[in-house]
Every structure is written in structure tokens, then in C-alpha cells.
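Hi there,

I know you've been waiting on this one. I reran it after we fixed the sequence typo, so this is the corrected version. Both the input and the resulting structure follow.
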Amino acid sequence: MSGRATQPGTGITKGTKPMRIVILGAFAALYFLLMASTFNSLGQVLPMIVADLDFTWAQAGMGFTVLGIACGAASMLPAAVIRRHGVAVTLLIGMVQLIAGFAALAWMQGVWMYLLATLLLGLGFCFCGSIAAVDAIGNAFDRKRSTAIGLYFTAGNLGAVAGPITFFAIHSATGSWRLYWLACAAGALVLGLFAAAVCGRYERRVGVVHGPADEAPPPPEGWTARAALASWQFWIVVLAYTACLLINTTVHSFAYQHMLEHRVAPGVATGFISAAAFVAAVAAALAGFAGQRVDARALTVVALVGSAFSSLALILPLGTAALGFFAVTFGIGIGVSTVGTALLLRGWFGGRAALELYSVMTVVSTSAAIGPSIGGHLHDTMGSFVPNFAGQALIGLAVALVVGLARRPVPRAVAGDAALA
């Protein structure tokens, strides 16, 4: 088929428009499940787990930390598998990890099984999530890349809406939080196989680049990995992504429990958290469309400020106004951050080493996973999540100022670039 330009080292390449749309849909459906069933609903289930299994909140927060560390620390692995074996194999590996993690959560009886389960889920999220998707979608879509990436993250945020509501419905109907994890395992099997099959079919049609780099076609334009890593602007993008992830993960860990402790009814708390996820879905879509015309740096600043304000909202007396303000700002922070940082990274450094740079950014952002452990420890010792929310709000605003003052990097030659290109 004419017009297929194979990108080096990735199984997803430019092809026909219908196939690109199917690829986007497959990744979007899988990301919907990932966002629904991991970070966004685990916080809803934790109060039941703590009560039934006699966990401390420090132990409960540690599970979130392990989940976040696994997502970040393993981020170079899917990049390597994609370069060598393609996207379909990467998705199958992630699917197996997800199923094992959900099964472990469903049958766990103690802390160690809980930590193992969250480790497996983090690895599965890493292999099936945004690393493969952003690279694949970025290579498949050239003219509407920003819109496509925005729609992908929109699907994930819609999953974040569905996850807490689905758990609330299953728990209300059955009284069991374990059945929810079994349902998630079934979803991982179905959607993982679907996404892998779609990607595998597409890879067979257009070809997957294997072998040494000197056998690959000429790389696309952009910075080499070595040159980008030597640029301080790259680390500004990493800092912004990490700050957003810190607030996102910590708030997801404890917002529900914090609301319950301040006399917010469980159904109302679930409703506002799901409303925040709905706002995030809308914000991600709008950010994707806006990314065609608006500077990605401005989008990233908006995400940081929104995230910081959402933490401040939780410190206020939790009436309807404060909860509504939380839902709007947290949704904007989540929805715009993923799109803004992905576009900023690719816009500043191009597509030549985008897969490696996105993976490095994800690895470094693992440091944000310490947030839930700190928050859980503070709650155990001080009896409140407020100090943690206040501290991370200040971090978000400080990083927003740094990003706002940053400027686009200017390419420069670096000796030995070819080694990391």
C-alpha cells in the first residue's frame, strides 16, 4: 500500500486513515480500563481493605507508592520491547501482568500480597499505558497528532469517571470489594487481547522494524536522546510532569477518605471524585484540540495551577462550593497535564527520540510515588491529610512559575549523539 512511511523501531506506522482510527480506538479502550481500575478506584476500595484486613493507612498508602514506582521505574522496559518486538507483544506482556495483579487483589489476605498486586498492576499499566500509546499515536497521526493524543487521554479520564462509580455499584449490590477486582481482570483479558490483535494485524500489514539501527530507515527530525538529556529544558518538562503526578497520585489516594473524615457522605464523595474525572475528560479533549494552536507550555502551566488549587480546595471546609471547586480544578489538572506535557516534550524535542525521552520522563517521575507514603504517615502521626495537601499545593505553584519562565530549547550538536539516537 502506497503512502506508508515506517517509523524506525516502532510497530505503529503511518497507514490508511481507517486503520489509524482503529489503532486509536484500541489504545483508548485499554487506557479507559487502566484508568478506571487502578489509581482512580483503588482509593475508593482502600477504606474497605483497611477495615477488613486491619491495614494501617501507612501500609495502604505504601500500595499506592509501589503502584506508582512500578509504573515509573519500569518505563524503559516497554520502550525496549517495542523497539525489538513491536507493540502487540508489549501489550500482551502487560495484559498478563494486569490479570495477575487484579487476581492477587481479589484473593489477598495480607500486606505482602497487596504490595505484590500493586507491583504487578504498575508493571501492567506501564506496558499497556501511555508509553506505547503516545509513541504509536504520535507516529500514526502527523497532521492531527495533538487531537489524537487528546482523545486518547480523554478516554482514560472517562475511565476515571467510570471506575469509582462501577466499584460503588458492585459493592452496593454485593457487599464485596473482591468481586470488583475480578471484574477488572476480565476486562483486562478482553481489551488486552483486542488491542494486541489490532496492533498485531496492523504491524503485519505495514511491517515492524527489527534489528540494528543501521538497518532502519533514516530517523525523523528532532533531537537525539543525548542532546535532549543535556538540555535543562527537558528536565523542566520532567519536573512539571512529576509535580502533576505527585498531586494526582496523592489526591487519588486520600481524597475519598479525607472527605469521609470531614462528614461528607460516601455517595457524595464518590460523586464529586467522579465529577472531577469527567471534567478531566473534557479538559483532555479541549487540550488536544487547543494543542493545534496553543503553546504546550501554557497548557502545562494551566495543569500545574489547576492541580495546586485542587489540593488547596481540600483544605477548605468541605461544603458544596469547596467540593465543586475541587472537582473542577482537579479535573483540569489531570486532564491538561497528560496532554500538555506529552505535547510539550514532542514539540520541543521532536519525534526522533520521543519514545526514549517519554520513557525517561516516566522513570524520573517515579519519585512522585513517595507522596502517598508520606501522606499516609502524616495521617497516622498527625491525624489529618491537610499538611500533605498544603505542601503539595505549594510545590505545584512553584513548578508552574518555573515552567512559565522557561523558553523553547535551541538545538545544538553534541558529540557522540549517535550512540543514543
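Quick highlight: DSSP finds 17 helices and no strands in the chain.

Best,
R. S.
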